[in-house]
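Quiz preparation item.
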């Protein structure tokens, strides 16, 4: 007899016949079988994990994978820390040594990534890698810039304002005010004096203290009066103020030893003098640290003579080029 069939006596023929169980009985049997199977499965899990203290194969596999992932993440974190330490050392050396030597501003660091709430280890790792990549790209560009200018390091020597702005001959000038705080000669009160003052007769020559390009020439009745600002590159600029005459124009290239103006008393001045400033990376610095006021007169004159010879050589070459072009044109 089948589980899902039953034997019954036919009242008409008095014979035993087999018939299917009613649907409600079939449903009841299947439901009971399902409950029994589930109960046995639950009992198996309980007995396997609680009584025997074993783990399910799936759980064991997932735990093994989790351990491997954590191990890989830890290795990546250790590598990232070593890379970040190496990059940070390069950044410090770049900002505090290389870029300072050439007068560049520090590299702007990228803003830190915002961390997500309840982030996973992989999320943190991804953000750290993203930030490290950005810093690496910026540092690469910075080193390329340093490499370019390092090839021109010879030019840097001539661009540092290292000679006096007036002729150092004895009696040619008098140092009337130094760099630092002093009592203002016009308004009184203690104020910062951002340069050095060279008192000398009106019309005394003023020399460029390094190679550069004239950034601006201003003529005014207040403040610095007639002034010249020269950009020497590598972070250096110089200002020559209170002049009676300016002999250069904006955009003009000048060299160390070129006469660029004459001492005067224009602007806020109590007497004829040159106010001389050295500006490094946007900040006023003491010019005394860059020039040698005890420079021998012979050495200064030799510098002027060399510069004059260069000018004469260039003038002759330019004249020769003009005559050569004129001869060719006349031949045509």
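Solution:
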């Amino acid at each position: 007899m089948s589980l899902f069939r039953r034997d019954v006596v036919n009242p008409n023929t008095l014979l035993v016949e087999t018939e299917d169980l009613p649907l409600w009985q079939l449903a009841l049997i299947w439901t009971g079988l399902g409950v029994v199977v589930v109960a046995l499965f639950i009992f198996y899990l309980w007995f396997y994990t609680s009584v025997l203290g074993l783990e399910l194969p799936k759980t064991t596999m997932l735990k093994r994978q989790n351990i491997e992932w954590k191990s890989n993440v830890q290795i990546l974190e250790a590598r990232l820390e070593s890379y970040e330490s190496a990059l940070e050392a390069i950044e410090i050396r770049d900002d505090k040594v290389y870029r300072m030597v050439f007068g560049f501003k520090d590299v702007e660091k990228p803003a830190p990534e915002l961390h997500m709430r309840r982030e996973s280890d992989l999320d943190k790792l991804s953000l750290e890698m993203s930030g490290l990549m950005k810093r690496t790209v910026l540092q690469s560009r910075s080193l390329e810039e340093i490499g370019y200018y390092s090839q021109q390091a010879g030019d840097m020597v001539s661009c540092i304002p290292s000679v006096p702005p007036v002729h150092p001959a004895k009696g040619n000038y008098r140092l009337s005010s130094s760099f630092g705080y002093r009592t203002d000669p016009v308004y009184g009160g203690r104020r910062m004096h951002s340069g050095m003052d060279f008192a000398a007769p009106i019309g005394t020559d003023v020399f460029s203290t390094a190679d550069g390009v004239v950034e601006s020439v201003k003529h005014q009745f207040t403040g610095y009066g007639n002034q010249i600002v020269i950009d020497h590159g590598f972070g250096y600029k110089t200002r020559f103020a209170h002049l009676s005459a300016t002999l250069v124009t904006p955009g003009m290239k000048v060299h160390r030893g070129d006469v660029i103006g004459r001492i005067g008393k224009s602007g806020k001045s109590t007497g004829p003098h040159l106010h001389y400033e050295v500006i490094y990376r946007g900040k006023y610095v003491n010019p005394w640290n860059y020039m040698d006021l005890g420079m021998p007169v012979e050495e200064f004159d030799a510098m002027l003579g060399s510069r004059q010879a260069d000018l004469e050589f260039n003038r002759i070459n330019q004249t020769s080029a003009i005559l050569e072009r004129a001869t060719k044109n006349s031949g045509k």
